[in-house]
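Posted in: Structural Biology > Protein-Ligand Complexes

Title: Requesting predicted complex, pyridoxal-5'-phosphate in pocket

I'd be grateful if someone could produce the 3D structure tokens for the following input. Sequence and ligand are given below.
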Amino acid sequence: MSRRVTATIDLGALRRNLARIGERCPQSRVMAVVKADGYGHGLERVARALAAADAFGVASIADGERIRAIGLDNRVVVLSGIDEPGDLALMRQYRLEPVIHHQQQLAWLEADPDRRPLPVWLKADTGMHRLGFAPDQVQAAYRRLAALPQIAGRIQLMSHFARSDEFGQATTADQIGQFQAAIDGLPGPVSLANSAAILGWPASHRDWLRAGGLLYGVSVVAGRSGADFGFEPAMTLSARVVAIRQLRAGDAVGYGGAWTCPQDMAIGVVAIGYGDGYPRLARAGTPVHLHGRPAAIVGRVSMDLLTIDLRGHPQAAVGNEVMLWGPGLPVETIGEGAGTLGYELICGMTRRVDFIEIDQGS
Ligand SMILES: *Cc1c(COP(=O)(O)O)cnc(C)c1O
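-- Reply #1 --
Done. Output follows.
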């Protein structure tokens, strides 16, 4: 096959990462966050692999519908709740649980004539300042929800952290304190921790964890990969060498002539680029793996191709597979070098990337 860019998803890695979270936090239930098409790994395949999760967290009703369509009956929480009154009927149809985070949503619920039970999550804003009721509005919102016959006794309490990846920062401890004060006296299961808080903030491990990145083996903690915390990357991105060029000292490589050969040398041309989701801003020096050893990108990443330095790889041949990220080459490292996060890269595979599944033993 000529041009083949492959994202290989290891279902075993997904399962083991879920189990690792359970081992770290045996007292908590796990909501597996599968928004953005399972962090770019494919929603259905991820949800099937993680069917042991106590619940799934999604960003849209459509994602909940996709989980039901493959026959899974785990609880499903829609993290941004309802966007219009008609969403309530869909929530019921697909047995989804909305997060209620602002007054308008409360009003829609109160106006809803359907009295069949609907579990909800009440979100407090404790410092992220994105979604959620201000701390001094939480008690009133809770009372309004609890007064509804369809809701009574089914209110879960949650908040989200802004800086839990910074283990030395007081903000997360402050947010936990704000949350405790806001929900004082209210019954109901509590959910605070995202992946970084699972790693760094044990005080946030309450009834429910909301784990995203760690399930995929990816960390947002600066300078540390998921592997550094004992998790396995679930995605391996690979492409092929399609040409090997012998260039002369002084030859400039790629758009803008941004990199110049310091000596006579071989360059490998690899058939992957930003049109596949590999970051254009990856700088010269960014590593790829060829035959399990690093080779450095030289010149600019273009739409379909990138170029690598083959000094030190005399055995390289056309057709060789090159790994762009995966086990031993964290996507977090590539993200950091390109001014972004591993999260953004794994979410950004384009439609011309082939996804394949493997189920590797640990
Ligand atoms: C995305 C998301 C999570 C998961 O975050 P990770 O850092 O990937 O673990 C948890 N809670 C909410 C509300 C989210 O939007």
